[in-house]
Amino acid sequence: MGGPLMGFTLPWLDVPVVKITNCLLAPSASEMGEAEEEKGCIRCSACADACPADLLPQQLYWFSKGQQHDKATTHNLADCIECGACAWVCPSNIPLVQYFRQEKAEIAEIRLEEKRAAEAKARFEARQARLERDKAARLERHKQSAVQPAAKDSAAINAALARVREKQQDAAQPIVVQAGAKPDNSEAIAAREARKAQARARKNELAESASEPSAGAGLDPRKAAVEAAIARAKARKAEQQQAEVTTAAPEAEAVDPRKAAVEAAIARAKARKAEQQQAEAATAAPEAEAVDPRKAAVEAAIARAKARKAEQQQAEAATAAPEAEAVDPRKAAVAAAIARAKARKAEQQQAEAATAAPEAEAVDPRKAAVEAAIARAKARKAEQQAEVTTAAPEAEAVDPRKAAVAAAIARAKARKAEQQQAGDVESAANDDPRKAAVAEAIARVQARKASRQAVNED
């Protein structure tokens, strides 16, 4: 395929038609003869004589067979036109054109690999050069940053340099010691005092910062007022429960005196608990309200309103109880016992108020006024309780012994109240004239109560 000169023999017929298929020769066996076996070169130089390009096919054959690509290139292998004349005249039947084609292909592949290697080398060298440039730039930046400090560090560096210069100047100056003269330590003493002052200032700041939260938590008048209000609300609830127990228990349990005694004991226990809560509220409220006089006045007004409300409730209970208890002497006895317990509680509260008021009110006269209002409210409450105790004997007129016992108890209470009033007046007069006036007012109220009780007993 390809003609008599530049064509080549096909190994088989299953080949496609390509651009070099410009000529097909299909001679018979008699025309072409049988294919002969390739033999060794006899160096006859017939190929060189037949070559139209004046090449040396014999040398090119040896270079191609020995993989000597450089020598083949030097002998102008690329100029071979692959005409096949050398192979036609070769007596040894050597396919020279096939050897030359294979050598050309190998040389082309070698050159392609060399080109690729050169390109890779160029890329590698460029990368190495870029890394070197980056490294040099980084080192330059580090040097500049080391030489030029930041703006925030310049002040500290300048101060350190100034100290070094001062030390150098001091070291350069000779130290002259005068005979008999004392050393001048004024600078060292001043520096030491400055350090001590700074340490004290830091310590004071730490103490203030540590004491502010605790002081704020312990001296908050609002929290104290809230606690006092809660305590008063609990006391009111306890009083209401006591009143309900005293009114409902006799009606339901009038049949059995034992149950009445049990109910009276429970009522006394609840009353004691309410007294303790009231005492705690009374001791906590003045401490919290000592900060502001306005709050004290507000608390006094609230206390007076509450006292009036309690008086009204007690008056209603006192008017309703005799009507319900007039039917049965047992109920009257229970009511009298409850009234006596309440009278004892009122006396204890008055005694506590008389002992605690001078101590708490020694600071502010407004507190004294508040305590006086509270004392008046308690006195009114005691009067109403006394009226209840006088009403109970009227209901219990069936038994003269009980009436005599109640009268003796009332006289003893009146004497005790007079003694307490006298002691309170003397102590208040010694402490403060305002307290003395308050104590005199309380004494007058209690005297009126005692006189009323005496009239009722007679």
From TrEMBL:
Pfam families: Fer4_7 (PF12838). Residues 190-206 have a biased composition (Basic and acidic residues). GO terms for cellular component: plasma membrane. Binds 2 [4Fe-4S] clusters per subunit. Keywords: 4Fe-4S, Cell inner membrane, Cell membrane, Electron transport, Iron, Iron-sulfur, Membrane, Metal-binding, Repeat, Translocase, Transport. One of its GO terms (molecular function) is 4 iron, 4 sulfur cluster binding. This is Ion-translocating oxidoreductase complex subunit C. InterPro entries: 4Fe4S_Fe-S-bd, 4Fe4S_Fe_S_CS, Ion_transpt_RnfC/RsxC. Residues 183-224, 236-257, 272-293, 381-401, 415-435 are annotated as: Disordered. Part of a membrane-bound complex that couples electron transfer with translocation of ions across the membrane. It is found in: Cell inner membrane. GO terms for biological process: electron transport chain. Its main location: membrane. Residues 31-61, 71-100 form the 4Fe-4S ferredoxin-type domain. Its cofactor is [4Fe-4S] cluster. It is a peripheral membrane protein. Coiled coil: none annotated. The complex is composed of six subunits: RnfA, RnfB, RnfC, RnfD, RnfE and RnfG. Residues 207-219, 240-252, 276-288, 385-395 have a biased composition (Low complexity). It comes from Raoultella terrigena (Klebsiella terrigena).
